[in-house]
Design a protein that fits this description.
Layout (H helix, E strand, L loop, with lengths): L1 H18 L23 E3 L5 E3 L8 E6 L4 H17 L4 E6 L4 H11 L5 E2 L17 E5 L5 E5 L5 H13 L1
Parallel strand pairs: 3-4, 4-5
Antiparallel strand pairs: 1-2, 3-6, 6-7
Helix pairs in contact: 2-4
């Protein structure tokens, strides 16, 4: 009987964890920031020699992506983000920030996939840990006032990402 109760509880846990939040909004104990909160304060150097300062995003909304090119889900999501970047880069600020990965390996992946997204190579988890403790890819949609509007903690579809950005632009 105990065994049956254990299996039923395990099945219920698995079913509810798969359902998750329908918009992938951050809800786990591994998350430091959630939708509705202000973006953490940080400054990073971008691969083109410029800097990105989360406190000085200006009036332009933003999209921050955390990744590592050895992550299979990240490798699948980055080309999707590239397509969105090409469409929205005039009205949305994009920055991809690596989680503990050097510039050389990122540049090799960017070249292989012909990506033009701006990125910041971070060899540690200092910036990443302002947002979360584990799990990539992560994608944060931020309004022009610095408020996190959407936080995706798993792969996000092109359709869902496009819809979130279109809504942000219309605000």
């Amino acid at each position: 009987m105990r065994c049956l109760i254990f299996y039923i509880n395990a099945l219920l846990f698995l079913l509810t964890s798969c359902l998750g939040n329908p918009d992938n909004t951050v809800v786990s104990e591994n998350d430091v920031v959630k939708a509705g909160q202000q973006v953490p304060s940080f400054v990073v150097s971008i691969n083109d020699g410029t800097t990105f300062n989360s406190n000085q995003m200006g009036r332009k909304p933003g999209c921050i992506v955390f990744f590592n090119t050895s992550c299979s889900d990240c490798r699948k999501e980055l080309p999707i983000v590239q397509q969105i970047y090409e469409e929205f880069s005039d009205s949305i600020q994009f920055v991809c920030i690596s989680r503990a990965e050097d510039r050389k390996s990122i540049q090799a992946f960017w070249t292989q996939k012909r990506l033009t997204l701006p990125y910041s190579a971070q060899t540690d988890r200092k910036i990443y840990n302002l947002f979360a403790l584990s799990s990539i890819p992560r994608l944060y949609i931020i309004d022009s006032l610095g408020t996190i509007k959407n936080a995706y903690t798993t792969k996000v579809s092109e359709k869902k990402l496009r819809k979130a950005l279109e809504q942000l632009i219309q605000q």
